[in-house]
């Protein structure tokens, strides 16, 4: 456990010493504040658009941080050869995978906290209401979803030695799932066999990341998601992340360390 | 007494680059045995199989056949590396960390309690003369300073066995002297040191025993003094003779 925690600490240090997070946060803040300062036709519902844009920016920024940070972890260890002094210690490859996952996931969580605090302050200052539980649910579900994304990118990083290829492929897959995943079953119905079975298979195989997107509930001031549903979604994400990490370990344990 | 480092018929083969070629044999049935308290020099020309042997001992590469043990534990078990320190040939460390943070990270991996880790970090940074630069990121260090951080990290767990891969390569004479002093000090403390080097004068000075390998095969092994007496030549001449070097120019 000590080893995993030590590796986690290094990943988090790396995140806050790089500029990625600060750039994304400043961009999100500037765009949100600019949008918030504009008044169209004295429409009081304008705050909804501000919230919608801010949440979209938070989603995009969190995905960029998650994919960007995770994609370079294992390739950078191999390219800079830091993996050698590390594995010369009593460290297993499984611990490296777990430490990297925990580090990237926690780093995403810390970044999300900052983003949601900012979002809470901006929307609270305009609406004069503080639906903290809704914000917490949105944060929690997004963070849990990022757990699947981080595990998926980590699996990709043991296959692709170039972080840029891994990041691009991961982005396309994650965005594809987020935008199209929910429609795959409907697409399957319109296909002839055997394509129908293949698309159906894909529908049940992919992790449904879109389930974790509760932005509309916040934008339109709707109620909370059931806590049982939240728990089940967390369990679903934990199972997918565990399977992806297991796959990453299976590949990494036999992987030659030199590039 | 149980050897600290032992290889039994160790053989390492690598897949050929092209499908038509035969597999490359990097190490051929190597038998080595290093006892506690010895400083053992592992010599050979480039591509002889030194680094591959070290990579097997460190668990980076799996042997094709045969076995390797550290402290009697199979090197495939991570626990075999609990009592070793490893210094790679070049500096491979997280450059965004400071020297102090890097040492604390490795101390944590070894499960060293915080107070003890603080004490060792203090002691090691003084030993490698990086006390004044401890709060600076490693990326701002010179090559010599980075090599010294490497030495400090190799000693953080107070290892009983130190594996050094060309520890003085790229260092200035002062840096080399410092590394030599540290090896000597470790020897006096009863530690075992296994190191590869191309600096034969250095090996002759600090080693108790040496092994010379060429093309993956062990050519000679023995005490430095015995080899010098037997061959009536210094270590450099013995080495060149064993690897079959023929001078091209006549005087």
Give a written overview of the molecule.
The complex is a heterodimer of chains A (about 260) and B (about 250). Chain A is mainly α and about 260 residues long. Chain A has one domain. Chain A contains eleven helices and no strands. In chain A, α2 packs parallel to α5. Chain A is globular. The two termini of chain A are about 30 Å apart. The relative contact order of chain A is 0.13. Chain B is of the alpha/beta class and about 250 residues long. Helices cover about 35% and strands about 25% of the residues of chain B. Chain B has eight helices and ten strands. In chain B, the strands form two sheets. In chain B, strands 6-7-8-3-9-10 form a six-stranded mixed beta sheet, sandwiched between helices. In chain B, α2 packs across α3 and α3 packs antiparallel against α4. The N and C termini of chain B lie far apart (about 50 Å). The relative contact order of chain B is 0.17. The model of chain B has no long low-confidence stretch (mean pLDDT about 85). Classes of the chains: A mainly alpha (about 260), B alpha/beta (about 250).
